[in-house]
Each structure stands twice: as C-alpha cells, then as structure tokens.
C-alpha cells in the first residue's frame, strides 16, 4: 500500500491522475519544468517539484530528476501518465529499484511490447493474427528494401520503438521507400532514441480498433470492450468512440479474447490497450500493445461506468480487480475529440503561443490542462472533450453542440475541423476508416463567407466601443450611437486568409447595419460580454467569443475559428512582410536546410525541416522563384516568426 503518489507528467493527464488519486485519499505530487511552473496541474497538486528546463529531454524525460523529486517530496509511488517515460522499461525498473511503486505493468512487459518486432513475434506465438511483414534484426537499407519487395506495396514503415504516429510512413510505391526509411529513422531516433524499423503490409481502408484490457497480480485478465480510433491525421488519432460501429457481440468477443491472450503472453498487469486493424472483410490483425493508459480512455469509462485510473492505482496497491468478464456491461455510446493547437489550413502544423481566451463547454466531460500558453516543447493536444449518450447519434449531436460552445483563442486550433468531421455524412453513418480524411471531403480551411466577415466587423466594433466607453468620463447611454449626421458609422480594414476587406458598421440606436463590400446584414446585439456576444445577424442568432492579441482579432464562431489582422494598424506599424519571405511557423529546431542562395524552387518544394512538438515538419516554398537569401542553418533553434528563407518570385 502507499498513501502518496507522484505523477511524472504534465497537462490534462497529470490532472486526471491526481483527481483519481485524491478520490482514493492519496497525497498528490506534481513535477514540472521551468516552462510549466504556473501550469494548472502544479496548482492542483498537494506538493510540486521543478525537474529542469523546458525541453522535455531535460525535464519530463529526465528519469533521475524525477526520482530525485520523488525522494525530496516523500512520494511512495509514481504514475507515468502517457507519453514521456510511460513506456520506458528502464524507468519502471529504476522506480522499483528506488523502493517505489510503479503504477503500471512490470518492466519486462513494457520492454517486450515496446519493441514492435518482439511484440509481433510473441503475440503470433499466442495465436493472435498479425499482418505480413518484416521484424528482423538486420536493419540495413538493402535488407529492408528486399523485404519490402517481398511484402509488396503499399506497406507501412514503422518505428520498432514508441508510438503516437512518430517514425511511421506509408509507402504507396516502392520507389519512395529509401526516402521513407531515412525520414522514419530520423523521426524515431529523435522521439524514442532508437532508429530500428519494422515493415508491415498496409491495410488501406481498414478501421483502427483497440481493446482496453485490465489485469491484476492475482491472475485475472479481462477486457472492457473496444474503442474505434479510425479518424486520424498523420497516424495520430483525432476522434475516438466506444463501442465501435463496426463490431457485433461475436466479433467483440473474438477481438477481446485475442487482446487478453496478448496480455497474458506478455505477463501483463494494470491497464493496457491492444490495437488492431479491422479490414472490410471482418478480419483483424495485431498492430501493437500500448503498455499504459490511453489518451482516449474516457470513452471506455463512460460506457463501462468505471474509473480506469482508480483501477490502475488499486491494482498497483495489490488489490484484485474485483470484477470478472461477465460483469462488464456497455452502456450507451461515447465519443471523444482531441482539441489540438494546430492549424488545419497549414497542413495541421502545430501552433504555439499565449492563450488569449479559454472557455470550456458545460454539460460534457472536458479533460484539459490549458494554462497561460501552448508550448512548442510538448504535444499539441490542449484538451479532450467527451460526450456520452444512450445511442451514437445522441452522443454525436451532444459533442457537436459542446464544440460549438468551446473557445480556445490564441494559437490556431482544429476545433472547426472537428465540428466539420463530426458532421460529415461518412462519420455520421458510422462508416469512417483510417482513410477518412481522404474520403470524407472535409475542407480543413473553407473560404470565409460574407457572414464570417460581417461577424469579424461586429467583433471589432464591439471591442472598439468597449475601449471608447472605458475612456469616457461618463457613460451617457442615451447618446450612444448618436450622430448629428444620422446613423453613426465605424469603419476598419480587416485581413484574413490572404484577403483584405474594408468593412463598415453603421448604428442607429440599437439597430446595426454591417457592410462587407459584397453583402449587407442587419444586426442587433442581444448580449455584450467582455469575451463575447450573442447577437442577431439578419434572422440568425449567433453566440461568439472574441479576443485580441496585438493587431490580431480572434473569433470563435459556432462553426469555426477566425483570425483577422487589423490591416490599418499593421500598416501603421510598418508591417513589411513580403510574400516571398518564409518564416518559421512555430518554435523548434531546424534539422535540415535544403535551400541555398540561387536555387530555383517550385511552389510546394521542401525548403527545410523543422522539429517541434516531437514531430518533423516540412517547410515548403509558398511560390515558385529563386532563393535570394537563407537566414538560418541546420541545427539552429528558431522561434515562431523567425525568417528562414527569402524567395524572389519571377
């Protein structure tokens, strides 16, 4: 038994674990980097210790610093959360060697399942079906290319260590294999410290279905049903649900039996997930086993009525599970989305910086650790929003409504994309596969409508009116919007998505008229609040949030987020950014610079590679031309907005 627990993680999962631990009467200890000193998980904890600078390698991945923090704060157990050191067998072993309890599986199980090659071999021996592939020790390009020819295209190149979509490449044509091997190796080495790879036949158009298992130290191993995680981008999950629309009770029982067999073969204890690909014919194949709590565990909790973190902790304290397979009942349907700080219009590049406004929706579960800023040093996920209902359609509609009431302004987010994805007929029908982004036709950056421009004008108008009121000695409400020339008018120039508009709002009493240059709307403000407004635009009632950052005006509308620039103010401030200047889209390390002065480049050609938020991101030419200057070299640490390459257009 133990009565204090240190959570070796940050953000929403650190808060999630500490809430469960506190419900069990445990003292909760947080660790944090210098960057996270004012983070919510630190404020929530009973005690906290700084473990190093912002880079994860010097803090959350620094096992010795975490163990020192545990000794200093009197922790008796360590919960790793997910990510960072959660699947590091050496860390689990070091925790136990220090006389502490590791809230997770035995180090031997972590090591086995953390090596995808060894895991494939072990589960195959236990009768679990696997895709044809190569998982041998010869990692030379020649051997991998030869094995790929035998497997045939399309195939997947995957890091043997780690997960989360890092070190993974889909190869549709074998000619692209050498580059895929090099890129996968580099990403895997940076993320996991190992560049070992495996090859597997690609099952295109399959579903990604995973089985949640729980095992105790007394011989009990059960499964808690499945989650469907097919909606992904860059092999990272965006939408997860339980149960899967594709499974019937018979298939669920077969996949559950395979998952528990894999867990027993690994000598497993605690919470874990066995991931499968389910093809259109109903055949399933082992992908990997995640020896930790999953990001998407809340949907399982919602349909099973169990607290998985509390179960983890009790198992770690030596208690039996207290339930058998026949005790597991699935109730209703749950869907989760990952609200990420990333820009869908820029190929889902991570977005960082200060948070101007955060408003979580009510009536659904929201797991988050949103603090004053989104850091470039950590994962881009800011929050998880989970809706539960008696059936799938109810859960889907509740989740859409919740996202419409959500605002995270400052960095760009995928909120609008998530709403569009949930509304897509393919998802509504329960037919989404891992090819969803290609098949559903969801536009990650739809063009601005005249209504969007009008709402931007109204937000700017309301913020300007509030500033004027604040500057007044008195506030003669009866004279507001009065002009001796008739209707009072306000004008501004706003820029968004490479377009610029001159906008006009005229007011006569409470009645407003908005002109966008191409359309005109009647408007009336029903409620004006410091961070938003409820208004009528023609006959449509709209609730919006808004905030400002410098010359940027930020809006969260029920259907999308918008970022406008006050073009008149930017011009007055001397904004000289030309179309040929390529800037860093975020903080990170420049791992490669392919551009050099005098080089002729085509539009979309890769200029450089930036490593940020544990991923490698290609920086591409916005237009064809000649490289005039290169402002940074490989190995440089760059900040968001730093100039990288200057291109002269022909």
Describe the protein's architecture and organization:
This protein has 17 helices and 40 strands. The strands form nine sheets. It has an eight-stranded antiparallel sheet with strand order 14-13-10-11-12-15-22-20, with helices on both faces. The chain starts with a strand and ends with a strand. It folds into five domains: 4-103, Rossmann fold (3-Layer(aba) Sandwich), CATH 3.40.50.20; 132-201, ATP-grasp fold, A domain (Dna Ligase, domain 1, 2-Layer Sandwich); 208-439, ATP-grasp fold, B domain (D-amino Acid Aminotransferase, Chain A, domain 1); 450-469 and 480-572, Glycoprotein, Type 4 Pilin (2-Layer Sandwich); 581-648, Beta Barrel (OB fold (Dihydrolipoamide Acetyltransferase, E2P)), CATH 2.40.50.100. The chain is of the alpha+beta class and 650 residues long. It is globular. Mean pLDDT is 91; it is low at 482-486 and 571-577. It is 27% helix and 34% strand.
């Amino acid at each position: 038994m133990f009565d204090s627990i240190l959570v070796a993680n940050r953000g929403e999962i650190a808060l999630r674990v500490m809430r469960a631990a506190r419900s069990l009467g445990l003292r909760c200890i947080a660790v944090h980097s210098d960057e996270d000193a004012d983070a919510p998980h630190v404020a929530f904890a009973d005690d906290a210790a700084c473990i190093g600078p912002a880079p994860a390698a010097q803090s959350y991945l620094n096992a010795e610093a975490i163990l020192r923090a545990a000794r200093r704060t009197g922790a008796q157990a360590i919960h790793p959360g997910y990510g960072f050191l959660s699947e590091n067998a050496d860390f689990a072993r070091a925790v136990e060697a220090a006389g502490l309890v590791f809230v997770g599986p035995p180090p031997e199980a972590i090591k086995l399942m953390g090596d995808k090659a060894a895991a494939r071999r072990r589960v195959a021996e236990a009768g679990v079906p696997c895709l044809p592939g190569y998982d041998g020790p010869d990692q030379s390009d020649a051997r991998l290319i030869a094995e790929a020819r035998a497997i045939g295209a399309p195939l997947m190149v995957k890091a043997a260590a780690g997960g989360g979509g890092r070190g993974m490449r889909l190869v549709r044509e074998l000619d692209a294999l050498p580059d895929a091997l090099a890129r996968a190796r580099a990403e895997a080495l940076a993320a996991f410290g190992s560049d070992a790879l495996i090859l597997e036949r690609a099952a295109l158009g399959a579903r990604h279905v995973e089985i949640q298992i729980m095992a105790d130290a007394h011989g009990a191993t059960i499964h808690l049903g499945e989650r469907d995680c097919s909606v992904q981008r860059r092999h990272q999950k965006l939408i997860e649900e339980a149960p899967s629309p594709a499974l019937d009770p018979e298939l669920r029982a077969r996949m559950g039996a395979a998952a528990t067999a894999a867990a027993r073969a690994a000598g497993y204890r605690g919470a874990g997930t066995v991931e499968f690909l389910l093809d259109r014919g109903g055949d399933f194949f082992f992908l990997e086993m995640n020896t930790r709590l999953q990001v998407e565990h809340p949907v399982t909790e919602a349909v099973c009525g169990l607290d998985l973190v509390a179960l983890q902790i009790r198992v770690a304290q030596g208690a039996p599970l207290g339930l058998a397979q026949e005790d597991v009942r699935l109730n209703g349907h749950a869907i989760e989305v990952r609200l990420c700080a990333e820009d869908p219009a820029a190929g889902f590049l991570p977005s960082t910086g200060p948070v101007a406004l955060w408003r979580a929706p009510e009536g659904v579960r929201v797991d988050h650790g949103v603090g004053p800023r989104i850091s470039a040093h950590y994962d881009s996920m800011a929050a998880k929003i989970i809706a539960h209902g008696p059936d799938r359609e109810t859960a889907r509609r509740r989740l859409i409504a919740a996202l419409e009431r959500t605002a995270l302004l400052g960095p760009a987010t995928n909120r609008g994309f998530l709403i569009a994805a949930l509304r897509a007929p393919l998802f509504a029908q329960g037919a989404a596969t891992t090819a969803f982004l290609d098949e559903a036709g969801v536009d990650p950056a739809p063009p601005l409508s005249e209504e969007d421009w009008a709402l931007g004008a109204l937000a700017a108008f309301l913020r300007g009116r509030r500033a004027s009121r604040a500057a007044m000695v008195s506030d003669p409400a009866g004279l507001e919007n009065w002009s001796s020339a008739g209707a009072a008018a306000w004008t501004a120039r706003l820029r968004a998505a490479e377009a610029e508009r001159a906008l006009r709002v005229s007011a006569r009493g409470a009645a407003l008229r908005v002109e966008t240059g191409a359309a005109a709307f009647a408007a009336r403000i029903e409620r004006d609040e410091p961070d938003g407004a409820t208004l009528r635009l023609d006959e449509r009632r709209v609730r919006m949030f808004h905030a400002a950052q410098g010359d940027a005006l930020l809006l969260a509308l029920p259907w999308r987020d918008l970022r406008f620039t006050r073009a008149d103010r930017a011009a007055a401030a001397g904004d000289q950014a030309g179309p040929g200047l390529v800037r860093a889209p975020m903080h990170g390390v420049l791992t490669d610079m392919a551009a050099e002065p005098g080089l002729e480049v085509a539009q979309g050609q890769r200029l450089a590679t930036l490593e940020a938020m544990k991923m490698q991101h290609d920086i591409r030419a916005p237009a064809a031309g000649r490289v005039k200057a290169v402002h940074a070299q490989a190995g440089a640490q760059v900040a968001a907005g730093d100039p990288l390459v200057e291109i002269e257009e022909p």
